[in-house]
């Protein structure tokens, strides 16, 4: 049996200015304790907008912080919702891999769909297809972690061209996969996909036993076709926990937290009408807990709601591990006998107090955990691995192998436009697109140094130069850059126009003019009526001169460039418009 | 003057199995050193798919890890691309806030657009509108961190209903904002939006001076209308760095890294044709560095490319802080005199060695940094704050205030469907949607305990029950759940049909039948031709009985429920189909 702790970052109102910071700081301290006393994994949820119920919306950040505070405990996403509306699958793959790197291979990759209306509608995720979205995304995400390069995605819920998604995780082929389950069918589904089942039902050991048996029998059957490139045969169940040597004390410390957990969950998922930023769930819980089955005090035992009766009558799934170390040892044994592989305890719930949580973790580590760890566990796990190894190998053989992308596929830095779908949605004229490309080129030429611009020009043929820099929009960018760098002191006293009589290879004229004054220069497309100087040159040559790829002296001598008018101005053009101007 | 270090996580090929892990581990160690010797901020880029150039695709994870290794240094996103195609603005707000919580308020929130074709096309982000996307997203993200609840987003590039985005950052109203700049116009734009300018051009001190002057004059003018809810008046420039007491040694240690940085940047942004997973940029760099201006050795000085000449002729922007502590002190002074607020050094570049980086950081902390820190800096910063305070207040007064959402806005957990836009895209029949809702309801009823289902039913009127659970799809879910729980031993020896003759309030018949056998039970919509038992009841009452909200005995006595046929079977229905079945 392995042991985990689970965080939703619950924060009942009212909130002070420091509440969220303290909540997180306490949790990190608890994880240090859990790590020290031998817990195997900390699991962190990802929820959005579920104020009071869960302030854990960036589990990756929290787990990454935890990775440097606790050096042995594993770090479980519990879970990352995979429908692409929440986050692009590439971002999920990158996040999981980077956490695996900073933690030196300690990630468990729990996945799921999410089902609260607050979250689905918040991110515009379609409820009816979220299972299919999960199916599509888990294939994409695992391929991203395995394929070098990722061969691409062309699916019902998104698409992506081939890319090498970096970094890759430490654990090969990828961290163990899990899926959130809330009922028997999902657990069965987990088995058919060869991934761990994270059961968030508060399930009794004996019922869990039936689920576990079915899980392993399906996993070992031909029905199992792995979702990832490795099989993770594990069933974990989640239970509330609070330990004290005195049973009544444990219940006193843990009952409100466990009840608020259940109430606030039901608020968001079942019965609550939620006013963002206004609803006070804690107050409503206090008012209504009796009515919905979370009564705090019982007048007549036979009138008590189910939850309370179970809490008094024995250690059941609703009570979980709230009790004495002895009671919890016995409970854990029952789950162990049922074949459950990991119990994940929820301690941080409602207003459960930090010091009680720390005390419970210490007690668990001292008085419960040792009975289930050590050599017996090692032997049992080795035996399990041996028993399943043939079935796992057979399952993996049924899986479609990683794909290979076309070796000829090339990404060009400048020409790459948006994919057709996006272009359609945010459609821009070709001119706007060329302007944007040219602008980026100029930006990057500056950033990367002149060399980069020169190299781009050097490696481009005339057609490419005409298309990108020589377009109307590209020329606008180039001339704007020139006038921005205008230095009036280069030609003191001169005021007049320079006409750039540019031509495309097909003969089309692309005239631009710059009016030069004592303070500034203004460029515009078209012919100045009375130019002091006219420069005639092909657009591509003009760009090459600007990039120092073509020597203007040579161009003059070979007739590719001609001047007409005030030649003394011609000699000062470079100085007038800065080094990267044309001339 | 403040000092930062900048990470792209460069990783030239070839890669070993441990290369990425070691790269990250080294970087974390370097940050510990930087923190100890007095650096102010570590900046981390977010890039995707730019293998060799940048393996930093989850900067939040890396910075969160760094937050627990270094307890004083600030943590800068340098930058997070804001176009929503990379990541939903809510995820950005959540990430920034959570990092601010785990670090106790040490986040600098750098933003930008991203311009590589590899990334834009990879995420389907439209190049032509990325500036407008940034404009829209920075407004949304900052409002999410300030508004309680966020009042919603209905824009050109996305939308979101009102939600309380949690957690909120420690720094109020939000962490300092920055924007990536690569040219004078963007720096000017940063000033008009009242945010810090992160200049990624390698710019000379004197040119930087002109930029800084313009920045502060625009920021103090009426042109400044802040993007966020606080003004961050700061200009930072990025420079390569490598320090050694011997100048030649510093150049020897730093030149290849700085050159590879420039070459690989130009590869992705300007001239490279990239084959994902196949192109070897390091090898190409070795072959072509001379050709594109990154020559390693010079035969004749006058033939040397620009970059090398500058590197030898003086401390310029392309050389940056590669040299002796004395040279770098002098360089920093020039930037200080130019009015630059922060210099961000790039040490991790190309194959620069970990021990050289650590040595440089130590040298900088011992021999350069002290001259620019201490009381003089405090005084200068206080003077600057006082000088700008009126302008900042005036600018903030020009900004549109945070919005308030309609207090009557309510999220209903069950009825919330996807927004119209998504429904159109992934359109499903109303039946499918109802099935999905009903499925979630049953899932959540199990997870949250019976109480939750009961409470939902208790708080719903008949019309709502009919719509959600009483739809064709909802009934399918309910009956599937019943048959899945079928226990043949409850009625040993019996085989036959039970007809549930259900009716809606408007009289419409909704008959369902369950064929019960020795091993399993099968449910289907419609009338069994020869039922052993017929139950007649309204759909809403049927659901209420299933949820234990209506006592079947009472329903029988009041005639709301009637049986016909084998009444001994009627008495066993509850046992047959488990506790949560109808009866």
Automatic annotation (TrEMBL), chains A, B:
Record bears the keyword Lyase: no
UniProt keyword list: Monooxygenase, Oxidoreductase
Gene Ontology, cellular component aspect: cytosol
Gene3D superfamilies: Luciferase-like domain, SCP2 sterol-binding domain
InterPro entries for this protein: Bact_Lucif_Oxidored, Luciferase-like_dom, Luciferase-like_sf, SCP2_sterol-bd_dom, SCP2_sterol-bd_dom_sf
Key word Cell membrane present: no
Entry EC no(s): 1.14.14.5
Protein name: Alkanesulfonate monooxygenase
Lineage: Bacteria, Bacillati, Actinomycetota, Thermoleophilia, Solirubrobacterales
Gene behind the chain: ssuD_1
């Amino acid at each position: 049996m392995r042991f985990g702790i689970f965080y939703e970052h619950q924060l009942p109102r009212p909130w002070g200015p420091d509440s969220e910071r303290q909540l997180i700081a306490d949790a990190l301290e608890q994880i240090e304790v859990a790590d020290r006393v031998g817990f195997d994994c900390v699991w962190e949820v990802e929820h959005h907008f579920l104020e009071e119920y869960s302030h854990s919306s960036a589990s990756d950040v929290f787990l990454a912080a935890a990775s440097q505070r606790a050096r042995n405990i594993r770090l479980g996403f519990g879970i990352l919702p995979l429908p692409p509306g929440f986050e692009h699958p590439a971002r999920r793959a990158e996040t999981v891999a980077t956490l695996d790197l900073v933690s030196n291979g300690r990630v468990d990759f729990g996945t799921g769909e999410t089902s609260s209306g607050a979250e689905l509608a918040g991110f515009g995720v379609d409820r009816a297809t979220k299972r299919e979205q999960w199916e599509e995304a888990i294939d994409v995400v695992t391929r991203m972690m395995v394929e070098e390069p990722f061969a691409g995605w062309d699916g019902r819920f998104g698409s992506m061209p081939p890319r090498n998604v970096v970094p890759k995780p430490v654990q090969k082929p990828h961290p163990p996969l899990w899926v959130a389950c809330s009922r028997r069918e999902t657990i069965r589904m987990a088995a058919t996909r060869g991934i761990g089942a994270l059961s968030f039902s508060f399930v009794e050991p004996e019922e869990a036993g039936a689920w576990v048996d079915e899980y392993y029998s399906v996993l070992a059957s031909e029905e199992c076709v792995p979702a990832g490139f490795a099989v993770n045969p594990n069933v974990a169940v989640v239970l509330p926990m609070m330990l004290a040597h005195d049973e009544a004390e444990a219940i006193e410390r843990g009952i409100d937290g466990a009840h608020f957990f259940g109430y606030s969950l039901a608020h968001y998922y079942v019965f609550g009408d939620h006013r963002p930023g206004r609803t006070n769930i804690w107050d409503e819980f206090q008012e209504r807990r009796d009515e919905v089955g979370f009564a705090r005090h019982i007048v007549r035992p036979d009138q008590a709601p189910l939850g309370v009766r179970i809490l008094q009558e024995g250690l059941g799934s609703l009570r979980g591990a709230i009790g004495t170390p002895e009671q919890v040892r016995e409970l854990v044994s029952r789950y162990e006998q049922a074949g459950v592989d990991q119990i994940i305890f929820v301690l941080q719930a409602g207003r459960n107090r930090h010091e009680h949580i720390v005390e419970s973790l210490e007690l668990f580590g001292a008085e419960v955990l040792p009975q289930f760890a050590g050599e017996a566990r090692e032997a049992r796990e080795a035996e399990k691995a041996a028993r399943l190894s043939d079935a796992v190998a057979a399952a993996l053989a049924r899986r479609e192998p990683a794909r290979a992308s076309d070796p000829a596929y090339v990404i060009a830095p400048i020409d790459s436009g948006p994919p057709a779908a996006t272009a359609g949605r945010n459609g821009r004229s070709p001119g706007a697109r060329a302007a944007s490309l040219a602008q980026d080129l100029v930006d990057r030429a500056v950033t990367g140094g002149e060399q980069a611009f020169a190299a781009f020009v050097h490696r481009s043929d005339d057609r490419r130069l005409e298309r990108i820099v020589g377009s109307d929009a590209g020329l606008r960018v180039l001339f704007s850059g020139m006038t921005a760098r205008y230095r009036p002191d280069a030609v003191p006293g001169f005021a007049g126009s320079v006409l750039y009589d540019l031509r495309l290879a097909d003969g089309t004229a692309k005239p631009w003019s710059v009016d030069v004054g004592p303070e500034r220069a203004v460029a515009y497309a078209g012919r100045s009526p009375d130019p002091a100087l006219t420069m005639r040159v092909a657009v591509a040559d003009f760009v090459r001169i600007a990039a120092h790829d073509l020597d203007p002296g040579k161009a003059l001598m070979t007739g590719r460039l001609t001047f007409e008018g005030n030649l003394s101005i011609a000699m000062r053009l470079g100085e007038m418009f800065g080094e990267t101007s044309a001339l």
